[in-house]
Amino acid sequence: MKINLQSMKIMNKQMILRYLVENGPTSRAELAKHTKLTPSTVSRIVSELFENDLIEEIGYSEKIGIGRKPIDISVKSKFVSSIIFNVGVEQTTVAVGLLNKEIKSIKEFHTGSLKSFISEVKDTIDYLEGTFPLNELTYIVFAFPGIVNTERARIIYAPNLNWKNVDLKEMIDQKYKIMADNEANLSVLAESLFADDARKSENLFFLYVSQGIGGGAMINHKILRGSGFAGGEVGHITVEARSDIKCHCGNYGCLERYASLILPVVEYEKYGKRLKGKTYAEKFANLVELYIKSEKKAIDALEGFIYYLSIGILNIINTFDPDLIILGGGYNHIWKYFGDEILNRISKRAMPGVLENVKFRDTSFENIEPPVFGSNALAIENIINNLE
Description:
By secondary structure, this protein is of the alpha/beta class. The protein is built from 13 helices and 16 strands. It has three domains: 5-75, Orthogonal Bundle (Arc Repressor Mutant, subunit A), CATH 1.10.10; 80-183 and 370-385, CATH 3.30.420.40; 196-362, CATH 3.30.420.40. The strands form four sheets. It has a five-stranded mixed sheet with strand order 6-5-4-7-11, sandwiched between helices. A hairpin with a 4-residue loop joins strand 9 and strand 10. The chain is globular and about 70 Å long.
């Protein structure tokens, strides 16, 4: 961007809105202090943001104890920045993201076929239009388990759904801007924005374990997408070269066919014992409860899962050399219950020194999945970057 008076004005406007989003309510004086802009410039930009309906006054500041208290301003609490569809193989969750980074869960629905999914998406948007104050800046954001062209909001290939070359903008045909990304990429983005250790990590990796396996790599603080948008797709690295188990991607012996949540559930249930739960994620959680209680069949069913997940994580370490590896997805306590055993197995195979600087943990997001927070963060960043 050529720096002139108009572009400088836009950059200052973006800086102030970004500060309010990241730091919360503050006064005009504090904005001038932290942004190094003149009070008159701050006042002018704040007035414009009021006109854009992006911010609001929320009362007198509590930051100053003596003297006349200034009025704090904040991003508008009801400003809808995103409608989020977190798409899973079995279930899709819907949420609304706000400009103040809050998330409101709306509902779940069965993902089903592409046709029924698109129909459900349109019906959901119609419902939300009558429930929330959506506006021309609101984004619709999709988190998908697969390869996504983020520039065109097009699903290149979602193997476990068998969806190929889906142009979301064309199929949904909405007045709102549409974005899409891989669920693991959005997860690593969320961690890097909301968790201190991830924010401080130059290189981190999010291993998304669900009905399939995905990976989000952040190298030098930037998401690795690759020339074909398949960067970090560790679910389809080969862990059994002579395997006769065919993956949905068409290859044989992929990591996700051995270390997703599906395999241990199938192993446990193949002898007639049924696990509680409607989805594989729910059944896997109940299987872990039995594992904790030392039920032998549960331990046996999870043995292969632990073994192959260890191989997958070691490959991630050797390939990406991250500071931090985060696990999450369909079940958010993998490292809590299996971390010691996984680390023990990795240690026996790792090259000398490679584990010295790597830390591991489960996702910091519990009740709401990390791709949802990542989706809203993506929408907010685009709202800020496109201010005029």
